[in-house]
TrEMBL record:
This is Glyoxylase I 4. Gene3D superfamilies: 2,3-Dihydroxybiphenyl 1,2-Dioxygenase, domain 1 (3.10.180.10). It comes from the Eukaryota. The lineage of its organism: Eukaryota, Viridiplantae, Streptophyta, Embryophyta, Tracheophyta. PANTHER family: METHYLMALONYL-COA EPIMERASE, MITOCHONDRIAL-LIKE (PTHR46142:SF14), PTHR46142. It holds the Pfam family Glyoxalase. It comes from Stylosanthes scabra. Residues 11-133 form the VOC domain. PROSITE patterns: VOC.
Amino acid sequence: MANNNPLQLKSLNHISLLCGSLDKSIDFYVNILGFYPIKRPNSFDFNGAWLFNYGIGIHLLQSEDPEGMPKILKINPKNNHISFQCESISGVESRLKQMKIKYVKNIVEENGIYVDQLFFHDPDGWMIEICNCDNIPVLPLSSSCSPFNCNIPNQHNHHIQQQIIPME
């Protein structure tokens, strides 16, 4: 595998999310996901907040048209999302139930290795995944494989089980 880094990238710095309500989003990312507010430049002439934890930043930007933001109602794990590793998937699931946050649970199995995934939305419909994805080893593709089509041994030996958890 060639180490090709044409832009000399080092790491993910932050993601930026448009918010209908900056206050609701700050509350969610601080009290649900454990981020903390950090100073942002005073020269910005728009409403927003910077949050940090787990080695990445989340920059929240107040939408100029909160009513015009798209409404996403269905939790679909195949949509764009931010994924976080967790220490205890059962602990996260218990807290989501306790906080009455609707989520979808997937269990992915690949050759006897299991990954649990919990998907839910932030107040603006941005998808969040909490998982124990580090159970699956990171294996580079061989030079004869395409990222879209690679015959990996025992590739047929995997499945996904999905469960939608209704909140009362």
